[in-house]
Design brief:
Blueprint (H helix, E strand, L loop, with lengths): L1 H19 L3 H9 L10 H28 L4 H15 L9 H18 L4 H46 L3
């Protein structure tokens, strides 16, 4: 039994000596990145693991930010944006108005503002800003409508397949 205890203590001593080769700062970095420091055998290996983990995090953050930019807003968020634009422009809209009604009201207001600008550079710049915000909202709304239409088409197709499979057609 004493031989087993000696071999066990030498294994523990060996693990401790391997861990001591890694600096405390490196151990903290490994732990912060979710890597178990006891699985690392050298400082060089630790630095390599840290670098690859940091690179993975950067790639994930880049992918996340690009996905966030590509996602479209829901219709309620677009209504909120349109109402904010309407308040900037001095247009009153009802809380019951649909998004398409609000967008057509804003478009009409921008047209009338353009007619009244009379070449005033400040007013024209303000109108261009309103126009770009309106185009952005309209573009996002178009995407939301396309997504809704795709969903309804897929649901309709699934219903038809179910009817066919059940022999109801």
């Amino acid at each position: 039994m004493s031989i087993n205890s000696i071999s066990t203590s030498s294994v523990n001593y060996s693990d401790t000596s391997q861990l001591s080769k890694i600096s405390e700062a490196t151990k903290r970095k490994l732990q912060a990145l979710g890597i178990d420091p006891s699985s690392v055998t050298s400082e060089a290996q630790a630095q390599t693991l840290i670098a690859s983990a940091q690179q993975r995090q950067q790639v994930q953050q880049t992918q996340q930010s690009s996905t966030e930019k590509k996602t479209t807003s829901s219709e309620s968020e677009l209504i909120s944006q349109a109402k904010t634009l309407a308040s900037k422009m001095g247009v009153s809209v009802s809380s019951n108005d649909s998004l398409s009604d609000i967008l057509s009201t804003l478009s009409s207001k921008i047209s009338s503002m353009s007619a009244q600008a009379n070449g005033d550079a400040v007013k024209l710049q303000e109108i261009k800003q309103f126009q770009s915000e309106l185009y952005s909202i309209q573009s996002q709304y178009s995407t939301v409508q396309q997504n809704d239409n795709s969903l309804y088409t897929a649901m309709n197709m699934t219903a038809n397949i179910n009817k066919y499979m059940l022999g109801l057609q």
